[in-house]
Structure formats: C-alpha cells, structure tokens
Amino acid sequence: METKRLTDTPADLQKAAKLLRSGELVAIPTETVYGLAANALDGGAVRRIFAAKGRPQDNPLIVHIADMEELPPLVAEVPELAEKLAKAYWPGPLTMIFRKSARIPDEVSAGLSTVAVRMPFHPLARAVIRAAGVPLAAPSANLSGSPSPTTAAHVLADMAGRIPAVLDGGMSAVGVESTVVDVTGPVPCLLRPGGITPAMLAAVAGGVSVNPAVTSPLPKGAAAASPGMKYKHYAPKAHVVLIRGTPAAYAAFVNSRRNDPVTAMCFDGEEGNLRVPYITYGRRDDPAEQAHRVFDALRRLDDIGAGTVYCACPSEEGMGLAVYNRLLRAAAFEVIDVDG
Ligand code: AMP
Ligand code: MG
C-alpha cells in the first residue's frame, strides 16, 4: 500500500477522518510525538495498530480526546484529582490513568481494568479527532522499540507501505511522549516523565509519587505498573552508552576512545573540544530543547551508521527527567560515571 502524505487542508482532514471512521490507521501529529491513530471504540481497528508497529499485545494504548465531554463515557469515574489536573494541564502533554468503562475495547487496555486518556494540544490533532467524531487510540507511530517519530519523515521511515496515510503537522514541539500519571489513588503516581514535570503535578495535587521504574531497571520478575516499562525502547541500532560527568571529563573520556569508531552525542556549545564525529541535542542547561531534539538525534545516529555512541548524560531536574528516562532506555541502562 502507498502511504499518502496529507496536510492541514480541509480536504485532507476529511480524508484522514474518513479513513479513521472506516477502521483504518492514520499517523497524526501531536505536540509530544507523532501518534499512530485508530478509532478507539473499534477493537478491530485497534488490532491493526499492534500489527503495523509490531507492538507487544500486552502494552496498552492511550486514548486521545479533543473535548472534556468525551471523557466520562470512557471511564468508570472522574476522580477530583483528575479534574484538577485536567483543568491545569489539558489540553497538553499529560496522560491520566482511570478505571475504564465498558466502552473501552480490551485491545486498547490490553486486558487491564484501567484506561489511559489524554487531550492533546496540537491544533491538527484536535481537528482530526473532532472530524473523525470518535476518540482515537494512538501509540507513538514508530516500529516497536525504535525511537519515537517527531516529524512526518520519521513516520514514513518506519511506516511507509504499512499504513494508508500520515498527516503532516510539522515537527513535534515537546518531542518526548506525554507524562503518564495514575490518578486512581489519593496522590498522582508518575509512571512516565514528560513535558508536565513532577513539580508541576505536585503544585496542583499537593504531592506526587514517582514509580521507581522511571529511573531504574525493573527488577527481574517484578510486575510493571505500566506495561511499557518492561520493554526495550527508543533504541537506535547504534550501541548507546550514557556518560555522566562535567563537560571536561566527558570530552576527556570521549577523546581517549578516538581510535575506535565512536560517535559523540553531546550538548550544543561543548562540541569544540571533541576529536570524534558528533551530533548535538541542545544545550546542557536547556532540557526542553533536549526533549525537542533527542529522538531526531537518535535517528540521525543510524543515518550516519554510528556504531558506539557516547551520549552526554542530561540532568534529572525538571523536564530533564523525561530526557534522562528515554536515554536510559535507549542505552539499556548502561551509564559510565567519569568524574574523578
Ligand atoms: P506509547 O503509546 O507508545 O506512548 O505508550 C503508552 C504508554 O502508556 C506505555 O508505556 C503504556 O504502558 C502506558 N499505558 C497505557 N495505558 C496504561 C494503563 N491503563 N496503565 C498503565 N500504563 C498505561
Ligand atoms: Mg511508544
């Protein structure tokens, strides 16, 4: 099948909506990353998502809505905590986990009794949800395990020939997937960091707990609070190692390996001291810019055929936690401390 590239014209929006209503898949832009969307109320359509991505069947999907009235029918109840967080951060890069209603097909929740829901901010995402007239289930529009797509070109690199269309809405502004929080308890529990930081959640909810799997490997045999925690993720073909230390210690370490075919993934402004090929992903003190560029940088490493990549480790502060979480998984938790 040929994958059509659609744009933001009314005619193209109608084409996308028609495909979605008839049970087909369309990759759509959001402010986090591109999503591979299907009608969330149609189990058969949702099964196509898993097939196109090669996604494990037990990894549930996020349901995307455009307006608050769409939420109550999808969930068993809307806790007060969720109402507060929605008021503060919807539309935006926040996904909340609710107890699900009977309308959610098992394919979406992967057999769990809960469902993840988000209201994206991106105007084209909102327009296509409204035009389709149904909530859209959408995981990231990459092949399972590879870096998430932040441009229509990234989507086509993975999905050309596998889906009927991609709606091009430019480069995703946030660049990493949404913050995922469980709101079924008294305080929000962070399952995946993203553009809405722990401090932003705590400011509204009075507190926040962070699941240990955000920054540590899941212990062998342990149950995952969020099935996505179990899987190798966001990984390019290159062998990525995170290097934690000062700019000087990082440069010294990387340069000491310059006789091997290594590539540096470093911060902007710190490339001057490196004696190996490099790709940058934002300034050291600008985690929002790092988030915006991190997946594109990981994909470019494969484009240049990088073998071993020494990636400068981001801070865990604020949005840095989301970047750190993705890079830890891209590096399969391989971190070297280089400060003496
Ligand atoms: P993706 O769609 O690729 O951004 O991944 C969605 C993430 O949300 C995965 O890590 C899922 O495991 C997680 N998720 C979706 N639904 C639930 C749920 N009901 N409970 C916990 N985590 C969920
Ligand atoms: Mg994903």
Topology (elements, then pairings):
Elements: E1 4-6, H1 10-21, E2 26-28, E3 35-39, H2 43-53, E4 62-64, H3 80-89, E5 94-99, H4 106-109, E6 114-118, H5 123-132, E7 136-137, H6 152-159, E8 165-167, E9 179-182, E10 189-192, H7 198-205, E11 209-210, E12 239-244, H8 247-256, E13 262-266, E14 278-280, H9 287-303, E15 308-312, H10 320-330, E16 335-337
Parallel strand pairs: 1-8, 2-8, 4-6, 5-9, 10-11, 12-15, 12-16, 13-14, 13-15
Antiparallel strand pairs: 2-3, 3-7, 4-7, 5-6, 9-10
Helix pairs in contact: 1-5, 9-10
Bound molecules: adenosine monophosphate and magnesium ion.
Explained architecture:
The protein is 30% helix and 18% strand. It is α/β, with parallel strands linked by helices and 340 residues long. The strands form two sheets. The chain has an eleven-stranded mixed β-sheet, with helices on both faces. Helix 7 links the parallel strand 10 (189-192) and strand 11 (209-210). Helix 1 packs across helix 5 and helix 9 runs parallel beside helix 10 (320-330). The radius of gyration is 20 Å and the shape is globular. It binds adenosine monophosphate (AMP) and magnesium ion.
